[in-house]
Amino acid sequence: MRVVIAGAGSVGRSIARELLAHDHEVTLVDRQPSAMRVAQVADADWLLADACELPTLREVRADECDVMVAATGDDKANLVISLLAKTEFGVPRTVARVNNPKNEWMFDGAWGVDVAVSTPRIMTAMVEEAVAVGDLVRIFTFHQSKANILELTLPQGSPLAGVRIGEVEWPTDTVLACIVRDARPLTPSPDDTLEGRDELLFVTGRDVDEQALERLLTRGPASS
Q1: In angstroms, rounded to a whole number, what is the distance separating the alpha carbons of residues 97 and 75?
Q2: Using CA atoms, how far apart are residues 58 and 71, in angstroms rounded to an integer?
Q3: Dihedral of alpha carbons 187, 190, 192, 194, sign
Q4: Dihedral, CA atoms, 154, 160, 162, 166, nearest 10 degrees?
Q5: 186 backbone dihedrals φ, ψ, rounded to 5°
Q6: Rounded CA gap, 30 and 17, in Å?
Q7: Using an 8 Å Cβ cutoff, are 63 and 89 in contact?
Q8: Contacts of 215 (CB under 8 A, 6+ apart)
Q9: What pTM does this model have?
Q10: 198 and 119 in contact (C-beta within 8 Å)?
Q11: Higher per-residue confidence, 55 vs 142
């Protein structure tokens, strides 16, 4: 896979190292000379230029890349890069970093963004997930489909503890995708039994009533 990353700061370099470790082809672009820390990601291609400009995107052959990652510290730049990549070069997938959560509403298909990643929102979700048992936490939202990834740690006293998964009537457009038990991820099957302290990961549609799902998990079917 060929990936162009706009923004060679700590975030961009970290992404590049991960992708290179999985044998992907990576190009890092940044307009700041101070960001050209080539030795830190020596296996990537580097370009000192402004990724918001069409000649730069032509030079990195954006039309040949599989993914464009807009990882700069400027939300306006990330939107422009995503829009140009999608509309001018037909990049199949764009991933954009959201620096200010107040701007998150703009990071959608209208600006050419397929996936928006808001670090503050993810960090908040991780904090909530770490301290809350019985609270449904939204981990991630896919901006194109509006589907959500939700997490809940099943309380010890939940009426669903000890119940077979196949016997639970989940809300429409709700899929139990994974159970994490004793630090091990498990693929749920209808014959598996839910246990207290299970971490449950759900994928849900955009219109799912999250409060109803939380009530089902913590109070049982009679209260859902």
Answers
A1: 7
A2: 18
A3: positive
A4: -110
A5: -125, 140
A6: 16
A7: yes
A8: 223, 224
A9: 0.64
A10: no
A11: 55
pLDDT, tens digit (0-9, with 9 covering 90-100), for 195-224:
999 999 999 998 999 999 999 999 988 644
Q: What tokens does 10 get?
A: 């700590």
Joined together, the tokens standing for residue 41 give 């990601």
CA distance 186 to 179: 5
CB 154 within 8 A of CB 195: yes
Instruction: With beta carbons less than 8 A apart as the criterion, state whether 185 and 197 touch.
Output: no
Q: Which two tokens stand for residue 167?
A: 């016997």
Handedness of CA 154, 160, 164, 169 (dihedral sign): negative
Q: Over the stretch 57-100, which tens digit does the pLDDT of each residue have?
A: 999 999 999 999 999 999 999 999 999 999 999 999 999 999 99
- Would you state the structure tokens that stand for residue 66, as one six-digit string? 């599989």
Q: 39: which residues sit within 8 A by CB, 6+ positions away?
A: none
Tens-place pLDDT, residues 145-181: 788 899 999 998 899 999 999 999 999 999 999 999 9
| Residue that has been written with the tokens 């060929």 in this structure | 2
* Contact predicate 178/187, CB 8 Å: yes
Whole-number Å distance between alpha carbons of 48 and 32: 7
